[in-house]
Amino acid sequence: MILEMKVPSPGESITEVEIAEWLVEDGDYVEKDQAIAEVDSDKATLELPAEASGTITLKAEEGDAVEVGAIVCLIDTSATKPDGGELAAKEEKKKEAPKMEDPKPAASVSKTYATGTPSPAAKKILDEKGISASSVSGSGKDGRITKDDAVNAVPSMGTPTGGSRGTSRSKMSMLRRKVAERLVEAKNTTAMLTTFNEVNMTPIFELRKVHKENFKAKHGVSLGFMSFFSLAVVRALKMYPAVNSMIDGKEMLSYDFVDISIAVSGPKGLMVPVIRNAENLSFRGIESEVKRLAIRARDGKITVDEMTGGTFTISNGGVFGSMLSTPIINPPQSGILGMHNIIQRPIAVEGNVEIHPMMYVALSYDHRIIDGKESVGFLVAVKEALESPEELLMDNNVMKALEL
Questions:
Q1: From the candidates 64, 299, 367, 395, which is the catalytic residue?
Q2: How far is it, in rounded angstroms, from Cα 192 to Cα 330?
Q3: How far apart are alpha carbons 316 and 147 in whole angstroms?
Q4: Would you call 356 a catalytic residue per the annotation?
């Protein structure tokens, strides 16, 4: 029996996916539920599992855009599984280096263009510019130099160094293209402004120093910075609900819950999984959810549902060494908090100069619905909570807050 395997719908509003990579080869025997391909949607990279065991026939190439519901491969379910010997022989064959073909006579390639051969129009332009065809990389078939190549060619201005000047092209994934579109959309459709502040991280450092070992021993997760920042954001959003809102047509849609999107770097680029109802989570709950989502994003197992929604975003550029940045709003949200690296800096404390671990924080917001007073007040509220976590985030009961 031949099973026609179709592209399943990864989520609402997604009409097509792109074959990012086949994990099997045409003619391979696959087991039911075995991952046979990675597919990109405009929201996530997902694995495509085999619907049955059998011999597979691929019906799409890597890089192809395939509509949801279209046939992507065939599986012959009547095929028997090869024995160990056949499998080993097949694997060994794959590992063998391809044999070099005998060189063909010169006459057999007379109709192809040698690399660096210009078209008549390109040759005229290069001659006028005084540029040698051998110094121009052709983008035409078989390396032929086109008219556009000649127009864009620039004479060498200096002594040649003999270094490599090669270029390469690769197709952007559907996920990467969608991220690019959304970033441009945010820039073009929002009145985005950014306000900055700085946080003295000493109180959090001291709390973590005392309790992080016991916290990890009891809960199985580390007591990181994200739980402090998430709970500080939850508190600030309750104080300034406009920041937890978004524009829907001519209306302002506000939420009485907090779904925090956390920007993480995955193997296919930026991903933004969501911590649902963060207002109901403890320090342990936040850290456990952050760990779970980060692992799923890293392993390419994150689902569209896990990245859909979100009412506010936190982005931590500090893990890459960023000192200061202006994060871009994640539409249709209206605010995003940027965390940065922690640097030991001298600051004035009650008239004295002291060195403390300091972090710059940034809030980018949509000025169409969030006023300057609200944006500054929100960021100040975040700063206050982070600098007085025991009082403002733990209700003066550290052991209870950390569930120790």
A1: 367
A2: 11
A3: 46
A4: no
